[in-house]
Each structure stands twice: as structure tokens, then as C-alpha cells.
Amino acid sequence: MKELSTAQDLSSYIDFAAHEGKEITLVGQIQNLRVLAWGGFVILRLPNYLVQCVADATKINMPLAELKPEATVRVSGTLVKANIKDVAMWPREWEVSIASIEVLSMPSEEALPVDTTKKELSCDLSTKFDYRPLTLRHPRERAIFRIASTVYNEFGEALARLGFTRICSPKIVYSGAEGGANIFKLSYFERQAFLAQSPQFYKQMMVGVFGRVYEQGPVFRAEEHDTSRHLNEYISLDMEMRLENGFEDIMQVEAAVLKSIFERLQRECAPELALLGVTAPSIDKIITVTFAEAHQIVLDQTGRDCRGEKDLDPEEERVVCDYAKKTWGTDFVFVTHYPSVKRPFYALDDPANPDTTLSFDLLFRGIEITTGGARMFRYEDYLRKMKARDMNPQLFESYLQAFRYGMPPHGGLGLGLERLVAQICGLANVKEASLFPRDRKRLEP
RNA sequence: GGGGGCGUAGCGAAGCUGGUUAUCGCGCCGGCCUGUCAAGCCGGAGAUCGCGGGUUCAAUCCCCGUCGCUCCCGCCA
Predict the structure, then answer these.
(1) How far apart are CA A78 and CA A87, in angstroms?
(2) What predicted TM-score, i.e. pTM, was given to this entire model?
(3) Tell me: domain A16-105, CATH 2.40.50.140, correct?
(4) Whole-complex ipTM
């Protein structure tokens, strides 16, 4: 038996200022190497740093030329002041003056398939994904996923502060939530099951328990779309809450959560944002336009009359966003009151106009990142709506239990993590905001 | 499900109204360089031009097919 210490500091945080002038030992992978006649530089990649180390050829224990990018090394030396210009580096005020280097591992290939030492990764999307274990090591790729990590964490933490309870619903399910046909089938012992395309039913059931819940997890869509804004598996940031005043409550909570996310990005991800050349957006006001007003904006701005249509197409969403930016100075527009026919059966119709629903989409820089709205909460309403849509209530037995036993007025939303991150980072394709994207063609790596 | 574009060394690209020794940058290999920061300089190796067929004296280039990638629409987050 061996007992390990529970007292040691397990943090990867390094207090560089406190180490100045002192001995320091770092284990990291070589991001880049610059060998000069007098010695050279080793850029070391650590969990959340990129540290420059400098070597004097006459003092170091081995020639730098024997090293190569992606070798894992243990560097010992002294932390000294430096002035580093490269914005990919962090920190930039200190470097390690190397005393010795020990090689722990070397890449087995003579040459790496893509060059990760340059400012930009110059390769096609498919190449980038084919070599994901390598390409993700590039500083810009790391920056994207440090930002994604922060967005994911703050979504949960901001909601938790507002009294929401985190839930984890099953991803193996008995029936398809939205009623759509685009659901992955799965063999489950002697029966057939499905991969959840949304935690919708479970988060509604859980509103009957906690009143305010959230979930962050993967959802699966078997849609054959093949575009720069779709994935077949993505991370859905979901919440569901009792409504005190109206479906506007949902938008207010979402705006508050987004605001909190962007402020935290500014505080904690400044180097990553700078590296990507972007700034965190801000959401200081909540701008809403109705679906009908959105069509009017498109008509006024472009002359295209789409007022009869039941949805906004991507081009119209871009027009509405451009208009909102120009007119109200905002990157975010909530479009409310979508037609009932375009919304799932559980959407709550607007009593003032039953052809529309008390629902919304949130558009961010030209793309829709959220769909949300109020849900029906009376059992009879579900039976009526399901009958009208030729749905068999018996197939939704366990879901409908919640309403049979009584439910408060409630609503919620789903936010696509990759879409949000892609828009923050200015990425052309959502897949770039996914570590290992799953699309129509890709199941690997 | 429908439509557009692209496949040329490990990576990214140029070339083509048909005839070249198929070009450039990065990476790789060798040499040089006292502070680099997308380091720099000199030299070298590396490509049956995605695959199959056709037209032609001649195809990387034109045509047909096929496979792969990418973008857009529908649908969605």
C-alpha cells in the first residue's frame, strides 16, 4: 500500500514573477526551434503557456540541432527577463536561460505531415482534421479550444449562480424527441434505441422537479446536411426554467449568461483572443424583433418580399443581423414569434395570435445560435396538439407523465456551443470549433 | 435530396486556347549565421500532375466516367 499526498499543489499555474532569477524546471513539447550559431531558442509548449527558452551553445549539455519540433523535453535553467514580440507567446516578459535539456521522447517521423511551427496552419480543412492530434497543437487551434472551454464552463457557472441545477439526461433514448426523422438508430440489446437529438423532454420533466435546470452535452442529428454551419454531433448548451412573467424571461436569462461569458473571456482569455485577432463581443441590450418585423426589414433592405414564407433563410438572417448592427449597434438580435407550423409540437402558441408561437431564435453575426421559447404546460394542450399533428400520445407516455402530474408555465433554450465559439473566433466553418468533428463523411479521428 | 467549385512532391499553391527538364513557398537533408520571435543566407533530395477511359502525331491541360474534398440551398443549433 502506498498513500499519496493530498496536500501538494497540483495546479499548472506558474507564478513567473515570483520565479524571476530563480531555478526552474519545465517539461513540455517543442513548439518551435530556432538554431543559431551561438545557441538558439526553444519554444516550449506547456498546458497553458508557450515559454521561450534560450540556449548558449557553449554552456548547454547537448547541441540544439539534435532536437526537433514536437520532441518532449525537460528543461532546467534560470528564469530571466525577456521582451518577446510574438503574440502567440505567453508569457512574454520572461524566458528560461537553459542549463540543461533532457529528451523524454522524439517524434518517430522524420518530417511531420503539417508544419505547426508557423504563425498560421496552412492546410485544407480535411487535412487539418485528418491530422487532428497534431494540428490541434498549433497555438491558434489551442486558442479556439481554450475559449470553447471557458464558454462551456461559464455557461454552467452563470446559470448555477442564478439557481439552476445541472442535470445529465440519457443520450440513449427510446424515441425521437422532436418527432423528426433525422435520428440515429442504435441497437440496444434485443431492442432498437436512438441517440438523443436533444435533451428537450428530460429538461422539461426536470422543471417539474427543480424549476430551473441546465444541461451541457452532446446531441446527435442524422441530417444529411453538408454545410459550414452543421455538425452531426455537437455540444448543446441547454436550459429550461419556470416562467414568472412570460417567455421574455428566457431571453433575459440568456442575455445575462452571454454577458457573463463574454466578460469572463475578456478576463481570462485575453491572450487567446489577441492571438486570433478578435475581441469578445458584448451584449448590453436585448434587441428583439418579431418574425414579421424581420421579414419587413428584409423587404426594406433588399427589396426581397419574403413575408409569405414560414422561415428565415440564411441570407435573410444575415440581412437582419447587418441591419441590427447598423441601426442598433448590436451583434445580437432575438427574432420572436415564429410561425407555429415551423416549431415543434411542444411550443406554446401565442394566445393573441395562435398561428405564431411564443418562441425565439437568437442571431449572432449572421447565424442562428439559439432556438428557445415557452412550452405548453397543460396535459390537455399536449393531447390536442399531438392529435392535430397525427402523433400518437402513447409513444410519449413517459414524457406526458410530467404534464399529467402537473407542470408550471415554463420554457427554455438550446445554444450550439460550436456555433457560438465559431462566431466569437471568426471561424469560417463550425467544424473548426469542434475538436473531432462528425459530419456526413467524417467519423475519424 | 438539389446545385456550384476544386484534386499538381509531406503541406499550401502556380502552370494549361495541348508540345516545358512541370514552377514557387513551407517542411525535410547538408552547410553557414552572437537574440531569434512566420528567424536569415547558401546548397540538395523529393511529383508515374486523384483514378479509369476517350480525342489527338502529342494530354497535367480538351471530353466522358469514377472516387475524394469543399462551398451553397433545403433542414437545423
Answers:
(1) 23
(2) 0.93
(3) yes
(4) 0.88
